[in-house]
Amino acid sequence: MGRSNVVVVGGGAAGLLAAAYAANRNADVLLLEKNNMLACKIRISGKGRCNLTNATDLKDFIDSYYDNGKFLYPALITFSNQDLIRLLFDYGLETKIERGNRVFPVSDNADHVAETLIKFAEEQGVRFRFNTKVTKVCVNNNCVIGVESSTGYYPADKVIITTGGASYPKTGSTGDGYEIAKMAGHTIIEPYPALVGLKTSEDWVKDVSGLTLKNVSVTIYCENEVRTQFGEMEFAHFGVTGPIILTLSHYVSLWLRENKKVTLTIDLKPALSELQLDKRIQRDFQVYQRKQLKNGLNDLLPKSLIPIIIGLSGLKPEKAINQITKQERFQLVHLLKQLTLSIKAPRPISTAIVTAGGVELKEINPKTMESKLISGLYFAGEVLDIDGITGGFNLQAAFSTGVLAGINACKE
Question: In what order do the strands lie in the sheet with 134-140?
Fold first, then answer.
């Protein structure tokens, strides 16, 4: 049996492992990368620390990809989070588990993850060609025969597309794979930003930009649909961001592109009912009864948020606390439990951590990552219509689908 000639398009998380695992199985593998270096997005992930996977179990993984998690089951079984951790350890990179089961390199250096994966691919015999942008997959009788690129034509028995999405275009993720797939006859679910900050209609967010709120509950409403997340969020000059906002942004982006109205509420004190919160405020007011309202909420709220809350309540900041009525106190309670914002848009897809949408999953075999339309054509990573919540799930999806594609590209 002759060696398979495999061309991998894109040298990110999915591409490096697809190429390495194909080469490991006696394939002659050429990886084409349009940048002059590999793993550009890995190098900036996790704010330069690289949250490379999550230490949770398989069920939680499946549940972390919104509506498309079941598609990933074969890939996650083939190459799990523990398989990734062992691979990195075998090549000298130790990892650690942090809050939320997030897995990082002990060095806190994303470059170390990138270089480890590159070393692994090199040792398997993968060949690299840089500054090469692939423009088309060449097909004959519904079978792959090669690719056309900015540096010429490359024949191939199998082609694996791992070009990423359309977020962080400076890393090379500019949506090239969508056009390549479309030209090959695949359906593309219109890409939209996921894990992205949300712009609000309210201007007061600018006054608390940079303020992080922990242990809050955020709920988004759209017609009859409701989604809630508990955890950490942050105000920004444009609106809101932070882990739980990023997780909810998948739904918000989807609803807004359908021209639906989206409202967001923040429960600043989710551990307390309105009655319990009212009693808490009464205790604080008893302590600060001789002070003005603007000086009586320091034990309850971050300092920068106090004037915002007072302003939204309609109360005067200078009003003496011992003169605040029961009704006015209830206004404060309601506001603290339902601080409401109108969402007008997600931030641009170029600022998103990942891209939702992509190659239609119904046209891909989940057991092999091979196209159901073109024999010998495979897809892996963010180019597919898969996106997950924060916490290392998106990189693991890229790694796992890449491995599955690489293994199956070498089978007859």
Answer: 134-140, 143-149, 152-155
Residues 286-322 pLDDT 10s: 999 999 999 999 999 999 999 999 999 999 999 999 9
What the block records as the tokens of 302 is: 């971050």
Euclidean distance between CA atoms 248 and 194, whole angstroms? 9
- Between CA 302 and CA 293 the distance in angstroms is 14
Query: Could you tell me the CA-to-CA distances from 48 to 39, 105, 114 in Å, in that order?
Result: 12, 11, 11
Query: For residue 105, what are its two tokens?
Result: 């390199």
Q: Which amino acid is at 308?
A: I
Q: Tell me how crowded residue 246 is: count the other CB atoms within 10 A of its CB.
A: 23
Residue-wise pLDDT tens digits, 334-351: 999 999 999 999 999 999
Q: Is the full-model pTM beyond 0.85?
A: yes
Note the CATH number of domain 197-346: 1.10.8.50
Domain ranges of the chain: 5-193+352-408, 197-346
As a whole number of angstroms, the distance between CA 384 and CA 378 comes to: 10
Which residue's entry shows tokens 């500054």? 131
The Cα–Cα gap between 275 and 279 comes to: 6
Homologous superfamily, domain 5-193+352-408: FAD/NAD(P)-binding domain (3.50.50.60)
pLDDT in tens, 234-276: 999 999 999 999 999 999 999 999 999 999 999 999 999 999 9
Cα angle for residues 88, 54, 411 (degrees, 5° grid): 60
* Secondary structure element (H or E) that encloses residue 161, with its range: strand 158-161
